[in-house]
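[AMINO ACID CHAIN]
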Amino acid sequence: MHSDTRAPLGLKLSAIGGLIFLLAPIALIFVYAFTTEEKSFQWPPPGLTTKWIGVTLGRADVWEALGLSLKVAAISTTLALIMGTLTAAAVARSRFFGRETISLLVILPIALPGIITGISLRSAFSLLDIPFSTWTIVLGHATFCIVIVYNNAVARFRRTSGALIDAAMDLGADGVQTFTLVILPNIATALLAGGMLAFALSFDEVIVTTFTAGNQTTLPIWMLEELVRPRQRPVTNVVAMAVVIVTVLPILAAYYLTRDGEHTAGSDK
């Protein structure tokens, strides 16, 4: 006798209602990116046009903000991949006093409210007399990007059998060869997924950036300022639509890369 695995109608309706609640505001962003009305959010839109895409592409301030966001996200992600992987390797593959405490301290920045991180970094930069620059934004973003990479890497390290590393060493491989030929192939998808998630989070970060950017403007900060002092409302929605796409694609890719993580070599040993 087979049990009925179909969800009850009430549960299906609740799920559909939840999805509509979450996605309807995002859909409105896409609609208003093509409206002919430029001074208010009128519903329904009086008409649809694609002219705002061309207007957005011609705005120099948009390109400057986009360039800074991409630069910060790329550097933050690179730092996170290096430091997060090394920290994960130390925590997962070694035994030492205070290991669990270090692990807790590593993930603490992402658990704290962003405003706390922002205020603490701003205070530290002021105390050390460090002028605000691209690097202060990078340091702020790296605090949570490292956590994303660390969480992905440490989970994959723990699923990778230590017997593989021992076997490589017994066969004469040195440390570099063991890492490149044995360890890296097993953790590569976890690192790629962590890097994509870190890039997406850095690209659309607002709170920490507000405290560490000084007079610089990343794309999310530009959007916030445009909402306060709008010049052409649909342009803000076109940029928001682009941010949604740029953010969602790495997250989807990270999901598909990590969902088969249980097949890591030696994980069942």
